[in-house]
Specification:
RNaseH-like_sf; HAT C-terminal dimerisation domain-containing protein; 27 helices; six-stranded mixed sheet; 6 strands; extended; alpha/beta
């Protein structure tokens, strides 16, 4: 029988661990005949002894690498804290004590020991690093986007007016609707031509002129020239359309502005206590007298839409105290004096409170971040239907009816009858204004099938395809038909999913694109979604910019702020 050969086992490896690290690659030691004896013979050879001497006297190559210091770690920490400051809208002053706080709380950290980033350095990091990077990221994201919408608005600051410019587009890979601040600066004036030139220059600078499909702004004559969207007139929309040489550019008037104007009334009387401290202190005494909690009176600004309803609500909460206060004044303003002497004044306020609750709640829903034109149009339709029902029934709340009954018993039937007639006239006036200004929104009816709340009908999709064709966006109807068939199955599978049905429209479409197997399953539907979700449905995003500015920089000159381009504060 042939003799069994020995092998290099795990046991031998443990007994002779030096073979792998010491013996060079290519060294051959056979253990087939003698096993462990062969290894011992090799250890006595001059070759192995030389290798051992070389291993012990040599240095690891890693010892010759330059060890990095902690400067990069310190820089990264300072940048991270600067970003944290702007991300959470903290004041730069909060960074003055951060360095010492980190050194005390993290005494064993080499990074904390060298951390030095107070307000001046924080601002420099934001201006010189974070803000340019935010703009660069936005530019990179916009390179592969086929459509975008643009919106702007002005905010007075002394003798100048600041105009932020926001771009909206759809990118399902990033979560759906995206809004980016790409420019913000003061303009020499606020004429139609100046604003249009400013928009055009910004679009051209960012290579977006050919991608812009819509302009959104307040419904003022400067922007649109009235409800007819006068394309031949001198307004921002008409001028921008001519500059872009885009006859199909879409104009979107801010619907929240429409709703505000629909119920706009004389609330200027509410600012009586806001300025004068002496009068405010006097009001506190009267509130105590009638056992009503003092509340700071809300003043109403015509440009702050949501202050309208809380202002009326607070006035009603303090009505007994207000009435007693003005009655005690020797020479109160005649308009206010007459208002509180009128026994029906409180009834009018309660009715306005009832009406404004509808508008207030729907304006909040409408201004939800990343809403689409589809959701906004549905909200407008809901309000329109509510007003029609209220008018048909001449609706009054039970509180109003109770106060009317009390006044009728006191012999004020004539005033009560006038109030009832005024209620009907109020509903008619609201409807007339609303119907006039929401007419341009009918242009977006072809997209209403996209909300996925009802079973899809191909006829509705066909209308959308024809609309896009008129806008110069070709859709392959043959491919689209097959893709709609797949979309129907997806919607049916999600119809019982409450979480899915509660998503915003753009989020539903993002879910669909994520689950689709390939671009061939949704190529034409993606074009439709990219167009529809690039339409800015309102101007609330610009209003948010102004709110962030006031929040982060309450004591800084706004013009200086924007010239420094603190865009990091506004980007998401």
């Amino acid at each position: 029988m042939p003799k069994r050969k020995c092998v290099f086992t795990d046991i031998l490896q443990k007994s002779f661990p030096a073979f792998r690290p010491v013996c060079k690659a290519g060294t051959y030691v056979s253990v087939s005949n003698g096993g462990a004896r062969d290894l011992k013979i090799h250890l006595d050879t001059e070759k192995h002894k030389t290798a051992v001497r070389g291993e012990s006297s040599g240095s690891l190559i890693t010892q010759y690498f330059i060890k990095p210091g902690n400067e990069d770690a310190v820089n990264a920490a300072e940048a991270a804290w600067s970003f944290h400051t702007v991300k959470h809208h903290n004041s730069y002053r909060s960074m003055d004590c951060t360095s010492s706080l980190l050194k005390k709380t993290l005494p064993d950290s080499d990074t904390a020991k060298k951390f030095s980033c107070a307000r001046t350095k924080t601002e420099a990091i934001v201006d010189g690093v974070l803000a340019p990077h935010s703009v660069e990221v936005a530019h990179e994201a916009l390179k592969n986007i086929p459509f975008c919408g643009i919106n702007t608005d002005g905010s007075n600051h002394g003798a100048v007016k600041i105009f932020p410019i926001i771009i909206q587009y759809f990118d399902w890979k990033e979560g759906g609707v995206q809004s980016k601040l790409i420019q913000a600066q003061d303009t020499p004036n606020e004429t139609e031509t100046t604003i249009a030139n400013y928009l055009m220059e910004t679009l051209a600078k960012n290579n977006l002129a050919s991608k812009c499909i819509a302009f959104t702004g307040d419904n003022c004559n400067t922007n649109f020239g009235g409800t007819r969207r006068d394309e031949g007139g001198n307004n921002v929309f008409a001028n921008l359309k001519r500059m872009l040489q885009n006859k199909t550019l879409i104009g979107v008037g801010c619907p929240a502005h429409i709703l505000n104007n629909c119920v706009h009334h004389g609330a200027d009387r509410l600012d009586y206590f806001h300025i004068y401290t002496v009068r405010t202190e006097s009001l506190k005494e009267y509130c105590d007298f009638v056992d009503v909690e003092y509340r700071r009176m809300l003043s109403h600004s015509k440009t702050r839409w949501l202050s309208l309803f809380p202002g009326i609500e607070r006035m009603l909460q303090m009505f007994p105290a207000l009435k007693a206060f003005f009655s005690s004044q020797e020479k109160p303003p005649m308009m206010i004096k007459g208002f509180f002497e009128n026994p029906l004044s409180e009834i009018y306020l309660w009715h306005m409170h009832s009406l404004m609750s509808v508008f207030h709640n729907h304006i909040q829903e409408m201004e939800r971040e990343n809403n689409s034109i589809i959701e906004v149009k549905k909200i407008l339709s809901t309000i329109h239907n509510i007003l029609i029902e209220r008018k048909n029934n001449n609706f009054m709340s039970l509180k109003v009816k109770g106060l009317l009954a009390e006044n009728s018993r006191e012999g004020l039937e004539e005033g009560c009858d006038k109030f009832i007639a005024d209620v009907l006239g109020m509903y008619s006036s609201c409807l007339e204004y609303l119907e006039k200004w929401i007419t341009p929104m009918e242009e977006f009816s072809p997209f209403m099938w996209m909300d996925m709340s009802e079973p899809l009908k191909w006829n509705d999709v066909e209308v959308c395809i024809k609309y896009l064709g008129e806008k110069g966006v070709p859709i392959d109807d043959v491919k689209c038909f097959d893709q709609v068939a797949n979309l129907k199955k997806f919607i049916e599978s999600c119809s019982d999913d409450d979480a899915f049905m509660g998503l915003q429209v753009h989020q539903k479409w993002t879910k669909y694109f994520e689950k689709a197997k390939s671009i061939g399953c949704y190529s034409e539907l993606l074009k439709i979604a990219q167009f529809a979700f690039a339409l800015p449905p309102h101007n609330a995003n610009v209003e948010r910019i102004f709110s962030l500015i006031v929040l982060v920089f309450p004591n800084k000159n706004m013009v200086t702020l924007f010239k420094k381009k603190h865009i990091t504060h506004m980007q998401r």
